[in-house]
Write a structure and sequence with these properties.
Layout (H helix, E strand, L loop, with lengths): L2 H13 L4 H14 L5 H11 L3 H4 L18 E10 L8 E8 L2 E8 L1 H8 L7 E11 L5 E5 L4 E4 L12 E2 L10 E10 L3 E5 L2 E12 L2 E8 L13 E10 L5 E2 L5 E7 L5 E8 L5 E5 L4 E5 L8 E12 L2 E11 L23 E8 L5 E5 L2 E12 L2 E8 L14 E11 L5 E5 L4 E3 L6
Parallel strand pairs: 3-5, 7-8, 8-18, 11-13, 23-25
Antiparallel strand pairs: 1-2, 1-4, 2-3, 4-5, 4-6, 8-10, 8-12, 9-10, 10-11, 12-13, 12-14, 15-16, 15-18, 16-17, 18-19, 20-22, 20-24, 21-22, 22-23, 24-25, 24-26
Helix pairs in contact: 1-3, 2-3
């Protein structure tokens, strides 16, 4: 029996079987007027207008989160809390992110409902049963659950998916629109900075997060800055309700929350120091998973080191590995990098490395930007998986002077961005490296 049929039976048990045709005609009319409505959602609205929710609430039936639509007057839901904010604003509100077998939805609690959440010990990972919630549709079309003055909140029974089930690995959220819930390892911090938002100075701090060699930046805004400290480097962060910013960076919002878990166990990493890079103290390091910018004044080119402890730090405009505990190593086979294919690149990736053939290279030129004049060059890069447009700026243009059409190159430490037409592009900046041979070594 479908959810719609189950609810229809309960409605008819209250108003009588003779009203079936009347109710179903009204449901179809509602769906025709608003194509975003499901038949189940329309039936809830009709039932609410008939004043039937008090009778429906006598049962223990709950609605799957994916079935909720805006405008419902009173519904019961059972969900696991995967995101939870501290009380915000005045009067206070609490933002929640809730999940069940069918999906994830945002929720807002206010008034007496905040106290009821506290009384049941609500926390990230807790399962709750909510009776008498209502729904609203946000301007962006997303449905939101409201826990108001009359919402009843209690602890739910077993059966909901585990907390970990709601968080995907970092590589799965690239280019996803809307709110994302992901897990990643905290790799390093940049210094906090201040940004003016509507005349107010707001604190921001960028983190480098990664998972199995794929990296992205996560910008912590406002109160989230204090949620993570240096001691959390190397630990897994479960981030709920983050969003991609227009510049291709993951960002927290007022609805986001972060849960820090235990460190991800890792064996020492072998790094072959290949050469010096133009930036002061910067080296090119080669690992089994790819290539890294390594910042050190004491490590020399040609060394093979086993790094037991390290963190990343923003140096200039890029991120670099800073070895904290390491020792010379010997290996039967030195690590060889595995560069990404063009087809694997996603908007938001940073420190990405890819190789391919240069096609349709344009002559270098000078452009006037908001920051003044700068050198500019562009070309297409292709491999067996596809092609992508590449733009080089400033000092990076010099690295392309000896590269011509038909040459194979490796582009190291580049960013994947989105152009105004929604397409992927590679950004080659001063922190990048172009290896004309097609290999970084």
């Amino acid at each position: 029996m479908s959810d719609y049929e189950a609810l229809l039976r309960r409605v008819l048990s209250l108003v009588g079987e003779e009203r079936r045709e009347e109710i179903e005609v009204e449901v179809e009319r509602r769906v025709a007027e608003d194509p975003r409505l499901t038949r189940l959602g329309a039936l809830y609205i009709v039932a609410g207008e008939l004043g039937l929710f008090e009778g429906l609430k006598q049962g223990s039936s709950t609605v799957a989160l994916s079935k909720l639509v805006g405008g419902l007057g009173s519904v019961n839901i059972e969900a696991r809390v995967i995101g939870l904010s501290k009380p915000r604003r005045e009067p206070p509100v609490v933002y929640l992110r809730l999940g069940d077998d069918s999906g994830v939805i945002d929720a807002v609690a206010w008034g007496d409902a905040i106290g009821r959440l506290e009384s049941v010990g609500v926390a990230i990972g807790k399962s709750i049963l909510v009776k008498g919630a209502y729904t609203r549709e946000r301007p962006d079309g997303a449905v939101e659950v409201h826990l108001g003055e009359h919402a009843e909140i209690s602890e739910a029974g077993p059966g909901l998916p585990s907390l970990e089930r709601f968080f995907v690995e970092l590589p799965e959220v690239f280019e996803v629109r809307g709110a994302v819930d992901f897990k990643a390892v905290i790799l390093g911090f940049a210094e906090a900075r201040s940004v003016s938002v509507k005349g107010e100075d707001v604190g921001v701090r960028d983190l480098l997060v990664g998972w199995r060699g794929v990296k992205a930046e996560l910008s912590l805004w406002r109160e989230h800055i204090g949620m993570i400290s240096e001691s959390d480097i190397g630990k897994i962060a479960y981030v709920a309700g983050a969003k991609w910013s227009p510049r291709g960076t993951l960002s927290t919002t007022s609805r986001s929350s972060i849960l820090i878990q235990q460190p991800l166990e890792q064996e020492p990493i072998l790094i072959k120091i290949d050469r010096r890079l133009p930036q002061q103290g910067m080296l090119l390091g080669i690992t089994r998973d790819g290539v890294e910018r390594v910042y050190s004044e004491s490590i020399k080119p040609g060394q093979l080191i086993s790094v037991k402890k390290m963190h990343y730090r923003r140096v200039g405009k890029g991120w670099a590995v800073i070895p904290l505990e390491y020792e010379p190593a010997e290996a039967e086979a030195e690590p060889r990098p595995s560069l990404q294919s063009i087809g694997d690149l996603r908007v938001g990736m940073i420190n990405a490395s890819v190789k391919g053939e240069v096609v349709s290279k344009s002559p270098a030129t000078r452009l006037i930007t908001k920051k003044g004049e700068t050198d500019f060059s562009s070309f297409w890069l292709r491999d067996a998986s596809g092609s992508i447009f590449c733009k080089a700026w400033g000092e990076a243009v010099k690295m392309l002077e000896e590269v011509g059409e038909g040459d194979r190159v490796a582009l190291l430490f580049v960013r994947v961005v989105r152009n105004p037409w929604g397409e992927r592009e590679i950004y080659i900046g001063e922190e990048s490296l172009v290896a004309p041979s097609g290999e970084p070594v």
